[in-house]
Amino acid sequence: MTDEHNITVTRKTKESTMVIVFGRGERDAELKQRLKTPLPFFNHMLEHVVWRGELTLSIDVQLDVYHLVHVITEDTGIAFGKAVKEWIDRYGARGIVGYGSAYGVIDEALSRAVLSFESRAYLAFDRNEVKLPEQMEGMQSEDLVAFFEGFVQGAQCTLHLDLLKGREGHGHHIWESAFRAFGMALYESLFERASRKGMTAGVAGAIHYDITHA
Q1: Which phi and psi (to 5°) does residue 141 adopt?
Q2: SUPFAM superfamilies given for it (predicted)?
Q3: Residue 118: domain span
């Protein structure tokens, strides 16, 4: 991915180092090889986000002695969110919409995602009546929720993610519908319209802080 407009975010802690390269452009034929977390199912879910969001993305995860799944998903979410926020901050004046909603479906599973980038970090994750298994494909559902928790922290956005339909025990399809919905809502949020040049997602406009020290 050589697009000069790519955003690179490196997040380092004592537990992990995450390098995210994010952009928009032509589909990357090497996408699967660029999603380098040690969690195959998580990589597959991120692949859906990129595919539905019409994004470019690479992720490289390095861990310390403890390979904690929660750390991988949450920290990846934070770094990914930071990259998206930087994209909006950098190119928002071109007319980036800043909000979007979408439904994601695969067979019997249906989910809805609603996003707004207004510097307000909030995740509402609602299972409704869907019986989501606690574990599937070698992962815990709570660790996939952690990805979205991390994303809203990094992106400073509001995300409502609602599971609407799903077959009991079929976590793969339920989660895939959710990640598909998220990717499509992200596509809408990052879409550029000439009529929105100079506008923000909310009517309050850009937020400015003056901080002084006594």
Answers
A1: -60, -35
A2: Ribosomal protein S5 domain 2-like (SSF54211)
A3: 7-196
Other C-beta atoms closer than 10 Å to the C-beta of 200 total: 20
Element (H, E) at 155: helix 141-155
Domains contained in the chain, number: 1
Neighbours of 129 (CB within 10 A): 8
Per-residue pLDDT of the chain (214 residues), as tens digits, is 444 589 999 999 988 899 999 999 888 888 888 999 999 999 999 999 999 999 999 999 998 877 889 999 999 999 999 999 999 999 999 999 999 999 999 999 999 999 999 999 999 999 999 999 999 999 999 999 999 999 999 999 999 999 999 999 899 999 999 999 999 999 999 999 988 998 888 887 788 888 888 8
pTM, two decimal places = 0.92
CB 186 within 8 A of CB 173: no
Q: Are 175 and 45 in contact (CB under 8 A)?
A: yes
Contact between residue 191 and residue 89 where contact means Cβ atoms under 8 Å apart:
no
